[in-house]
Design brief:
Keywords: Kinase, Membrane, Transferase, Transmembrane, Transmembrane helix. By secondary structure, this protein is mainly α. 78% of the residues lie in helices and 0% in strands. The protein has helices spanning 2-32, 36-42, 44-66, 74-81, 93-107, 110-134, 147-165, 168-183, 190-205.
């Protein structure tokens, strides 16, 4: 009986470690998107073209993967990063991530797009990771979102926005808006919404 209990506990521990690894891998991609504004400042249209190309190539890769045809590297990265809910289906997260950044970059001035992209990269990226690691208190009606994750989102966006504008009030309002959006049960569509909406709110505040 004790051996069986130890076996079950071992399986649960391995599953938890695997989930944390996947979250860490996935959110490292989120955080790496913070470099996009820097590249946009040096080569705007080439970066826009690369984002569009990435969306097209990834979409084709996922459609082929659904038919059992794996694309080297791309399919492997998707497999490693995919959540349990994404198994045997089109993994939408990378598409919404790139589209959210693309929309912000095309519609907003670079300084405003930068704040929106940072909100996605640091706010949403770190929120999910901290929620997995330290989240004990869940937020009612938020589909498993945790207080730890939401607070992490708030502070990450506040700091990144303050680094961009040096204004505490603007940073506070921007961070509160980002935290509210992050709490909403939007699944992967928060990637699509956060950069343009937060960038637009920031542009209105300044």
């Amino acid at each position: 009986m004790q051996t069986q209990r130890n076996t079950v506990e071992g399986i649960i521990a391995r599953q938890r470690l695997n989930a944390i690894f996947k979250e860490l891998f996935r959110k490292s991609i989120h955080i790496c998107s913070s470099f996009v504004p820097l590249f946009l400042g040096f080569a705007y249209w080439p970066v826009i073209a690369l984002l569009i190309l990435a969306i097209v190539v990834y979409t084709i890769s996922e459609l082929l993967r659904a038919k059992g045809i794996n694309i080297p590297l791309i399919s492997k990265i998707t497999e490693i990063a995919a959540r349990k809910r994404d198994e045997n289906r089109f993994v939408l997260g990378p598409v919404t991530l790139a589209c959210g950044i693309l929309i912000a970059a095309l519609l907003l001035p670079l300084d405003c797009a930068r704040v929106g992209i940072f909100a996605l990269a640091f706010g949403d990226g770190l929120a999910s990771l901290m929620g997995k690691l330290f989240g004990k208190i869940t937020i009612p009606g938020a589909h498993g979102k945790t207080a730890a994750g939401s607070l992490t989102c708030f502070f990450a966006v506040f700091i990144s926005t303050f680094c961009c504008c040096g204004n505490c009030l603007v940073s506070l309002i921007t961070a509160l808006c980002a935290m509210f959006i992050e709490v909403l049960p939007l699944s992967d569509f928060d990637n699509l919404i956060i950069p343009p909406v937060i960038g637009l709110i920031y542009s209105g505040l300044i």
